[in-house]
Specification:
The chain is α/β, with parallel strands linked by helices. The chain has 8 helices and 12 strands. The protein folds into 2 domains: 118 residues, Rossmann fold (3-Layer(aba) Sandwich); 95 residues, Arc Repressor Mutant, subunit A (Orthogonal Bundle). The protein is elongated, with a radius of gyration of 18 Å. This is Chemotaxis protein CheY.
Length: 230
Amino acid sequence: MSEQGHVLVVDDDETVRDVVRRYLELAGHEVTLAGDGEHALDLVARSEPDLIVLDLMLPGIDGLEVCRRIRQRSAVPVVMLTALGEEENRIAGLRLGADDYVTKPFSPRELALRVGSVLRRARAVPAAPANQVVTDGDLTLALGARQAVLRGTELSLTTREFDLLVFLLTNAGTAFSRVELLARVWGWDFGDQSTVTVHVRRLREKIEANPAKPVRIATVWGVGYRYDRA
């Protein structure tokens, strides 16, 4: 599975942009640079990249707002750049649908490895038969079309959210730890387990009648999560 692609790097620091560009190009990627959120959104609208490296602290339109706007129209993978101590921003970014994050100061080599890993995961989703459908009461997942419909209304799910929901529903009744979900759903060989927690929270907000009292995606204390059919 290819780990190379067109990467958009968004950072207001010219030195950071140049260093990241050189390491990504050494890894075989085509790289486009943007110094602010407005330029980044314009580039994405004109020619969507395969992955975006996005600094959260940007002038004008900040990184969180850039991520939010991108997620309104695209599931392109996003790797966030955050400063030490910005845990709330990292969580907010993950809630908006970012795929991974790297904390500043960071190793450019590590960032290049993470970019390759995220691209590999994004491209490793196996194709489903065009007519394969999984249902649970008023929830229908069309796997080939990658479409989720709840009570007749199509849900807006990111790639990660859809993959997690499909895995949990097709393995209903079985509890999985966060580590297992990272590995079995997204193929992550490293990663923050809070990513799973954030994606579960987002799914509950979209499929549960009362996200505070979920009946479909249950928390199994001391283990992780389990899907219970309606």
